[in-house]
Amino acid sequence: MTPPRQTNVIELAPCSPGAIAPMSLFDWFANRQKADAAAPEPPERDIADGLWTKCEACGVMAYTKDLKTNQMVCLNCEHHMRVWSDDRIEQLIDAGTWQPLDTGVAPVDPLGFRDRKAYRDRIKEAQAKSGLVDAVQTGQGEIHGESLVLGVMDFRFMGGSMGSVVGEKLTRAIEHATAQGVAVIILCASGGARMQEGMLSLMQMAKISGALERHREQGLLYIPVLTHPTTGGVTASFAMLGDLILAEPKAMIGFAGRRVIEQTLREKLPDNFQTAEYLLANGFVDAIVPRTQLKKTLSQLINMHHHPFSPAAASRSMGNNGAASDGAWEGDRPQPVNESLNGSAPLS
Ligand SMILES: [Zn+2]
Fold first, then answer.
1. Is there a domain that residue 315 lies in?
2. Is residue 69 located within the same domain as residue 119?
3. Tell me: the pLDDT tens digits for 46-85?
4. Ligand 1 centroid to residue 289 C-alpha, Å
5. What is the pLDDT of residue 313?
6. 210 CA to middle of ligand 1, Å?
7. Which residue has the higher pLDDT, 326 or 245?
8. What is the CATH number of the domain that holds 212?
9. Distance of CA 136 from the midpoint of ligand 1 (Å)
10. What is the mean pLDDT of residues 183-212?
11. What is the distance between the alpha carbons of residues 52 and 68, in angstroms, rounded to a whole number?
12. Which residues have CB less than 5 Å away from ligand 1 (the ion)?
């Protein structure tokens, strides 16, 4: 006699007899719920679609939208993820005030250089990938109503290397700021000089430094912000010439690589060598500013430089729309740099 057919049984994929026992629908749902609870990670398709982003420091997944709102700083461990020049401009500059400078300055291949690949092909490839002309964007804009000239290096483009275009665009931007009488901010991110342009890339260090000196002679402000990584010829020139030098937490900042220095000095270097925190402790950096506080900090610094003794101006920079009273001044007084950057955890 045939047993009554069980309707609540799912036959799993055909396999060798006895390998997997038939499972009741109830068990199947129970198992699925357990599996869902144990593995909160989103399906791969969501990751591929960019809905979720995994923090490379702590491994926690976050909605990309939430991360973007937090300027790509991990909501769990405050790791500063890499952002590109367009993001930086959006994060810092007041909406509708950005005016790009010298967008027509484009790289050429003056030496006809070729290593494994021709330099001109590398340029084309980097341009197609990044949508940029070269490794820096410059322009004039406002930060909380303060006009300034901003240069933003972009590590996507050949490792943010400094060739003739980076040098020329930054020099012109600084000269423009000098003529306008406004501050210059440069967000540095670079692997160093662009070797494919030989000494033409090294000359940019002197050219930019000269423009900065003429800017300084006019009593105007220059603040470099060192982001991860700032190395080579950029560190050896304009990254270290600021009136104030800011850095992002845990940014790698150095000239030569650790191995080269260890071999030259025949000495083991400390673990945190070439981090923003190490440089702060040793006097090379003035403050470490979390990305989420950078816009506010820059606007305060520019404002203090313009109006060093004006409480009303200080209050305006804090977003009080100029409605300064004695009370507003007390509440909104800009803090000395080190105090105003509490979240940055500088070394004590
Ligand atoms: Zn994290």
1. no
2. no
3. 666 789 999 999 999 999 999 999 999 999 999 999 999 9
4. 18
5. 52
6. 40
7. 245
8. 3.90.226.10
9. 28
10. 97
11. 11
12. 55, 57-58, 74, 76-77, 79
